[in-house]
Amino acid sequence: MGWGHWHPEEEPCIPRPPRGFGRHARAHHHHHRRRFHLGRLGSFVQARLRRRLFVMFGITILVTVLVVSWVMNLTGGNTWRQETERARSFVGHRFAEVWDAPAARESLVRGISDDLDVDVELTDLSGAVVARGGSPCAKPDATIPVMRQDTQLGTLHACYLQTRSRGPWRAVLPLGIAVLVLWTAAGGISFRLARPVDTLVKATQELGEGRLGARASLDRHATGEFAVLAESFNDMAARIEKQLADQRELLAAVSHELRTPLARLRVLTELLRDGGGNPRTLDQVDREVVELDALVGELLASSRLDFGQLTPKALEAGVLGAQALERVGLSATLLQPETDDVALMADATLLGRALVNLLDNARKHGVGVEALRLQEHGKEHLAFSVEDRGPGLLPGEETRIFQPFYRKDRGGEAREAGSLGLGLALVQRIARAHGGEAFAENRPGGGARVGFTVRKAGPPGPASNPLA
Fold first, then answer.
1. Fold of 40-159
2. What mean pLDDT do residues 260-269 have?
3. Which residues fall within 8 angstroms of residue 119, CB to CB, at 6 or more apart?
4. Taking the alpha carbons of 115, 120, 124, 130 in that order, is the dihedral positive or negative?
5. 428 CB-near residues (< 8 Å, 6+ apart)
6. Do residues 139 and 159 touch, judged by C-beta distance below 8 A?
7. Global pTM?
8. Lowest mean pLDDT among 48-52, 149-153, 323-327
9. How far apart are CA 90 and CA 75, in angstroms?
């Protein structure tokens, strides 16, 4: 590629970092916050925490009821039984006093039945009813022996449960209502306790997705621990945003500053060449300038991936391939599409950089480009691959060539070819950013095939820059 053929698309646009997160950036950020929906992780954490708090509160309430009932039974049960025995003894003695007076006996039975609303039957030792108050008592709820000294005169049978509340649920209902009210209040408390966690999870997800302006904003009712945690998170996010903004600004400034002297050096070498300078020296200077310019381009493209600066748009894979071949000075006839479905959503600048790197790698290390192929890779992916005419890959190089700064060292041709060891590593990063993967293999007929896949529907997850 000659220096006179300048391609603006080769230099990614690195936006200036926001100072103070300006008005437009804040509006854009709040728009993203309104559009943000709780992810699977946040929903799981929120639901799990609320459910656990709710169940724990319910168990605590039930255990409290049982413990209180047990304690009341221990402290008041003996007293209740003693009072019951005293009442039974009192009633038995009253009937023993009037046992020999039928009229008084009948009057006492009717009085107890009317005053206490109890069905009463008084029987003698043979079981015959000698007095009755109320309805017949078939299944007595209480049986009181009528004793005179140590001799039993008869038995008093009392039925009172039938005249009381018909449903035992009426006795349990107040307790059930109290438990339900307490458990409902526990649900509200658990929701209130889980809400700050939900806010922190959402802010963490936004920061992890590249929205560096994400902050955790808790209401004034948040507990002290959550407020401290939110403050620590916001401080961490602010530091990360500032450091990355400073790094981006420095990278952009250095890159642009380097491009200017490089352009001047290239112009000077052209002037010296025209003026009769030493061609070999000029070629060496020109090669170093090209290498530095390529390094700047690789760093700029890498910085876009570091900061999530992907701008997907509708593209044609065939057009991208033809443009890449033209940029490296190769014939468009090397493009061999093997599928009709060549539409995809991708970042044109980054994808073009990846194709140029593949073609440059084939020219420098593969003795020339045999073909640039477009192929289907499953239903969702499209594959770009470059076939070369070289000796192929060494054992283990199928993965090592994608490592940063890895150079093929065969007689020192790597340095002479101007290899930086970053081109294929960048190809792999671009492929992964587009939901694909890089690959390399030897061809059966000789040479190597190096390429990458991309997702046709576009990069997975949020790809646009929220600060742009």
1. Beta-Lactamase (3.30.450)
2. 74
3. 113, 133, 134, 135, 136, 137, 158, 159, 160, 162, 163
4. positive
5. 402, 437, 438, 452
6. yes
7. 0.47
8. 48-52
9. 24
Q: CA Rg, the chain, in Å?
A: 45
**Confidence band (pLDDT; 50, 70, 90) for 178?**
confident
Distance CA 325, CA 336 (A): 12
Higher pLDDT, 33 or 40: 40
As a whole number of angstroms, the distance between CA 130 and CA 464 comes to: 99
DSSP state letter for 15: P
Task: State how far the Cα of 178 lies from the Cα of 62, in Å rounded to an integer.
Answer: 11
C-alpha 130/C-alpha 145 separation (Å) is 14
Name the β-bridge partners of 337.
Answer: 374
Place of tokens 């590593």: 425
- Sequence spans of domains, the chain: 40-159, 224-309, 312-408+419-460
CATH of segment(s) 312-408+419-460: 3.30.565.10
Residue 439 and residue 451 in contact, taking contact as beta carbons nearer than 8 Å: yes
- For residue 273, give every residue at least 6 positions away whose Cβ sits within 8 Å of its Cβ, in sequence order, or none: 279, 282
Q: How far apart are CA 362 and CA 329, in angstroms?
A: 13
Q: Which amino acid is at 197?
A: V
Q: What is the pLDDT of residues 393-441, one digit of tens each?
A: 988 888 889 887 776 654 444 444 445 567 888 899 899 989 999 999 9
Pairing label, strands 335-337, 369-377: parallel
> Which fold is adopted by the domain 224-309?
Helix Hairpins (1.10.287)
Distance (Å, whole) CA 426 – CA 30: 33
pLDDT score at 419: 52
Long-range contacts at 257-260 (CB < 8 A, ≥ 24 apart) = 258/292, 258/296, 259/11, 259/293, 259/296
- pLDDT-based confidence at residue 385 (cuts at 50, 70, 90): very high
